[in-house]
Design brief:
This protein has 12 helices and no strands. It is mainly α. The two termini are about 20 Å apart.
Length: about 400
């Protein structure tokens, strides 16, 4: 484990590898946030008009929501989460995240300013609280660098909220692209330079556990979506089969995620020469995993409602695209932990992509069964390979 204790008593972090109860409480907001994003995606897929444009807008909202969670997790893995100033930061971020989730379904309509204002206030408020609340010069510099860049991107966020949806999407896309780009660059700031991997120290055990817990929340969203869909419809053989397939898919996503790499992420980050670099890499791969899980939840909600409905390209996109995104993210996650990627992840995603055109002739239930069988093949291959090889230790990518 790597951590900066310059301004902390020697034994203040009694159990640093565990998320605090306040952080677990904070994560509950993201159950609601992911449901809101999923419901917006359902509306996008059901739209008869600009499906790609509306889905792109939903993706942009997910990127913003994910970045708020990521920066919060990084902050509590860099600054001791037991300190009152850090706890105040968590509570403030929790409220901002809740407001963003409330505004998300109408963020490109009448609630644009509410969403953008909550995002900007949260991203500015967090580093401001930490910069004022810590005397450690290194940690203050880190907070000021982050504050500087979010102050810059606040302009397109707020300006975009005042414009029609088209220009708004462009400005928000530019802002979120900058927000995602500056972290790998070390937040270069005039007069302060940039933060290097050696300077930005985190608790690897802690941040690794946060990633795993949020994935479980995403699986909870999948269970909620399919459970609600099944409970709201008239029972039938097709819907019962769709519900069973959705449960099998949930189990397979859990199995594939936690197989080796998911179990060893905390050890990998803690043992890394530059844990902050690995934490950033894991954040981007988990974004794909999260997006894939949310899309899968949306796909199975549609399948349960209409198991033998007419084929729809947009429906096929989420039913097969969700698991494909998950596998690609899981492959990148594996590379971050072990320095290599098992070919089954890429092959599984490729098979789903190749099969997509042929699925247009099949009912949604059969498309879902196909996705589940591909995931089952990946899981079975993992288990067979594990019996032939010893447990691989974490290794940094070259």
């Amino acid at each position: 484990m790597t951590t900066d204790r310059a301004d902390e008593p020697p034994q203040e972090r009694a159990d640093p590898e565990r998320a605090t109860f306040l952080e677990l409480f904070f994560d509950l907001v993201y159950v609601f946030a992911l449901l809101q994003v999923g419901h917006r995606l359902i509306e996008d897929v059901g739209s008869k008009g600009h499906v790609l444009v509306e889905s792109g807008e939903t993706l942009l909202l997910l990127l913003a929501i994910w970045l708020v969670w990521t920066y919060s997790a990084w902050a509590t893995s860099t600054f001791d989460p037991r300190r009152p100033v850090v706890q105040a930061k968590v509570v403030a971020t929790m409220f901002g995240s809740l407001v963003m989730a409330v505004a998300a379904p109408k963020a490109f309509d009448e609630r644009a300013m509410l969403f953008a204002g909550a995002y900007v206030a949260t991203q500015l408020g967090r580093p401001l609280i930490l910069a004022v609340g810590f005397r450690n010069e290194g940690k203050q510099r880190l907070a000021v660098r982050v504050l500087f860049w979010f102050s810059i991107t606040a302009v397109p966020w707020i300006t975009g909220a005042l414009l029609p949806s088209g220009p708004r999407a462009v400005l928000w896309a530019v802002a979120i692209a900058i927000d995602y780009t500056v972290a790998p660059l070390g937040w270069p700031t005039p007069g302060l330079g940039r933060t290097g991997s050696a300077e930005w120290t985190i608790s690897g055990d802690h941040v690794g556990e946060r990633y795993r817990l949020l994935f479980l929340i995403a699986l909870g969203d999948l269970i909620l979506e399919t459970g609600i869909a099944f409970s709201e419809t008239v029972p039938s053989a097709g819907r019962s089969a769709a519900f069973l397939v959705s449960f099998l898919t949930t189990v397979l996503l859990w199995r594939i995620y936690f197989f080796r790499a998911g179990e060893l992420i905390t050890a990998a980050i803690a043992a890394s020469q530059y844990p902050s670099r690995l934490a950033r890499s894991a954040a981007y791969t988990h974004l794909l995993i999260l997006a894939g899980t949310v899309a899968t939840a949306v796909g199975y909600r549609l399948v349960i409602a209409h198991p033998f409905g007419p084929p729809d390209p947009a429906w096929i996109g989420v039913i097969l695209g969700g698991p494909a995104l998950f596998l690609l993210g899981r492959g990148g996650f594996e590379r971050a932990v072990f320095g290599r990627v098992s070919p089954t992840r890429l092959i599984g995603a490729l098979v789903l992509a190749i099969l997509s055109p042929a699925m247009i002739h099949l009912p949604p239930l059969m498309v879902a069964v196909t996705a589940s069988l591909v995931l089952l093949g990946v899981a079975v291959t993992d288990s067979a390979r594990a019996r032939r090889r010893p447990l691989v230790q974490p290794s940094q990518p070259r």
